[in-house]
Amino acid sequence: MLRAFTSTDVDAVYDACQDEDIQHYTPVPVPYQRADAEKRVGEDLPAGWATEKNFTLGAFRKDSGALVGSYCLFIVSKGVYELGYWAVKEQRGRGYSVEAARALCNWGWAALDVHRIEWWAMVGNAGSRAVAENLGFTVEGTLRHRGVANDGLPHDWWVGGLLRP
After folding, report:
1. Where does the N-acetyltransferase domain start and stop, copy by copy (predicted)?
2. Local confidence band at 165 (pLDDT 50, 70, 90 cut-offs)
3. Which end of the chain is less congested by CB atoms within 10 angstroms, N or C?
4. Which one is the CATH code of 2-163: 3.40.630.30, 3.40.50.720, 3.60.21.10, 1.20.58.1120?
């Protein structure tokens, strides 16, 4: 189930973001404090929706209500959005990220003026790449030293694109 994050999700977001992979592959603060989760859920995400620049939803299991991950579409330029996501360590490898990201992309095609969705991931993030390829993204290349990660070092990044069906 995809829905907006609420204050009741702060602990789950905080717990998920303690994962070393999330801290390495995504731009979350390190160390990740509970105050970071409170700000993200209580301020940053609602502001993204209000300004129509960042549409982030949480994915939750229907059976248990457990957090699966965070999935967002955020505007890059007119008609171009980037798909971003992270998944809770215990929920990976079950197909939930593909299901959630596909639903969000389909919503983007229907509700937003989107002609291209981009995906970026640090080289080595095989899980993210597998999700993107399963969604139909074409991996378009590798950008050398595209960004500096939380470890303070520049890393290569993959880039992919998905065009309006």
Report:
1. 1-160
2. confident
3. C
4. 3.40.630.30
